[in-house]
Amino acid sequence: MAIFLATSTWAFAQNSDPASFAIAASKIATENNGKGICTPPGTTLDNLMLPLRKYMSQHPEKQDLTEADIYQALSQGFPCPTNPSNNIDTLRSQGYSVRTISPIFGQLVMFSFPKGFTTVFEDAKGPQYIREAVLTGESTQKWSQMVTITGAKGIASNPNITPLLFASRMAGGFKNDCPTSFNGTGLGAFKLGNYDAFAALISCGVANPTGNLYSESTLLIVIRGESDYYTIQWAERGDASSEPIKFDKSKWMDRFKRLAPIKLCPIVPGEPAPYTSCIGGA
C-alpha cells in the first residue's frame, strides 16, 4: 500500500457514489505487517459482513471476535492486489478519495487525507492529542507542508470557549512569534453536521527568527465536538518575508475542499477499525 498512517488510524478509499465504497486500509501494526483491505467499487456495507459470517462459521469456538479476528476475516475476504500499481494513488486516479477515521478522546474524527502525505508523528499526553503528516521524504524537523490533527479533551463544555475564540487564541500565538510580519483572516463559521466550526488563515512572514529563516502559513479548522475540541491544520513553509504574507485564497480554499468531508461520529463501544459506523452519509 502507498499510504502509511498511525496505528490508531485507518484509511479507506471511497468512491463518490455514496452507495458503494472501496476500502484501501493500511494499518501500521506488526501483526498485519502493513497489509490492507481492498474491496472493489460496488461493495456495500452489508457485503463486509459476508467474510465475517464465514469466519465465525469456521471458528465456532470464538464467542466474541477480537479486532485481530475481524481484520483477518476482512483481509481474507478482500485481499489487496499484489501488483504495486494497484495502490492508493491508482485508486485516487480512478475517482476515489482517501480518508482517515481516528478515535480521538470522545469521538471518531474523519477527514480526507491529501495525496503525498505520510504520518510521521503521533502523541497523546493527558488532555492533549496530536498527529502530524508531512510530504513523503520529509520529517518533523524539515518539511515544506504539514497536515496536523489535534484534540483538546473536555473543554467543549465550557460555554465561554467558542470555535472562533479557540482559533483567535491560536492566531494570537502566531502573532506573538512574529508581531511585525503576522497576517490572519477568518474564513467564517460553519456547521459540520450538528457541530460548530470555524476556519481561518494565519501566517508568519518570519516564523523562526532565531534559526533558519522561513515563513509559515496555516489553514486552521476548529471544531467543537460533544465534549472535546479538535483542529485540522494544513501548513506550508516558504521563503521568509519581513512583510506579512498575502494569502492566495483560491489555493487555500482548494486545500480546504481537499480535506473534506470532515465528520465527527460517536464511538461505538467495541467497534474495531475501520469504524464503518462513521463511513455512511459522508
TrEMBL record:
Q: Which domain of life is it from?
A: Bacteria
- Which Pfam family, any one of them, does this sequence belong to? Rap1a
All residue ranges annotated as the Rap1a immunity protein domain in the record: 29-80
Name recorded for this polypeptide: Rap1a immunity protein domain-containing protein
The opening ranks of the lineage are: Bacteria, Pseudomonadati, Pseudomonadota, Betaproteobacteria, Neisseriales
